[in-house]
Structures are given as C-alpha cells and as structure tokens.
Design goal:
Elements (H helix, E strand, L loop, with lengths): L1 H22 L5 E8 L5 E9 L8 E11 L4 E9 L2 E6 L1 E9 L8 E9 L5 H6 L7 H10 L20
C-alpha cells in the first residue's frame, strides 16, 4: 500500500513538472517613451508592453496609467491593453506611472518614469526624407499648412540638377 502511494505521488509530481511550462506566465516590461506630433506644441506619450525579446505583446489584460504634469494635474485611465497606447499631450514634463495587471499568459508589471514631451517635427525634413505617404495624419497636416510653400517643389530650383538638363 505504501509503495502504491509513493508511485502515485511520483507520477503526480512528474505530471506537475511537465505541465508547469504550459502554466508559467511570461515576464513583460513596461516601456514609456515619447514621439513627435505634427501639431505645434503637442507630442505623444507612448506606452508599450514588451516581452523578453523587446517585441510588443498583445493582451486583453487590464492596464492602469496615470500621467501627471508639473502642476500636479493628472489623467488616470484603466482599460484593456490590447496593444500600444499613444496619448497626445502638450509639450512639457510629465510623470508617467503604469501598472499592468497581467493576464493568463503574462505576469503583471509596473513602471514609473519622468519624461519630457517635445516636438521636433519639421515638415521640410519629413518630405525631403521621402516619408510622404507613410502617415496620413502627417500628410494631411502638411497639405493643410504648407500647401503654398515650396516644400514640394524641388524641380523649379535652379540649383537642382533636374533644372540644368
């Protein structure tokens, strides 16, 4: 009888060991960064959850983030994560606190970071670097605000090689 109990316990232990990688949750990191916005004096705060290889994860787990400005005003949000979050803010300094509650596949994660939202967007550089067509919001902004300038017109420039043919 004692032998049967030991065998059953041994089989149970092996089953638990074999099943544990399936049940183990993956570790994630919170990445907080900024991105330029085409609107003057605005920028984006970007929040992403990444796996151990730095790739963004997809999850329906709940995320809570609080963004506080230098005056103590804050925005608090609690929602399902799905994928990266981009929130438009005025240029300035902010404290960002993010808590990911985790889900059945990923462990929970938390991070707090002080960031500075800047706007170094330059329509001329954007167009000259052949980025036209990559972002409709940027293209519309340039079209609405720079249509009468020579941003698109390199051919009429006597310094341009095409002019001298």
């Amino acid at each position: 009888m004692k032998r049967k109990i030991i065998i059953i316990l041994a089989i149970l232990a092996v089953c638990i060991l074999l099943a544990s990688p399936v049940v183990a949750k993956q570790k994630v990191k919170v990445k907080i960064s900024t991105d330029d916005c085409v609107i003057k004096n605005k920028g984006y705060i970007v929040i992403k959850l990444v796996d151990k290889n730095g790739r963004e994860i997809r999850s329906n787990g709940m995320i809570n983030y609080t963004i506080t400005d230098k005056n103590g005003n804050y925005k608090w949000t609690y929602k399902s994560y799905n994928s990266g979050i981009r929130v438009k803010y005025d240029v300035g300094k902010y404290n960002v606190h993010v808590v990911f509650k985790g889900d059945s596949k990923y462990k929970s994660a938390e991070k707090t970071k002080d960031i500075t939202v800047t706007n170094d967007f330059d329509a001329y550089t954007y167009y000259d670097n052949h980025n036209w067509g990559l972002n409709q919001e940027v293209d519309d902004y340039i079209g609405d605000n720079y249509w009468n300038e020579e941003i698109y017109d390199d051919v009429d420039d006597p310094e341009n090689e095409a002019w001298n043919i």
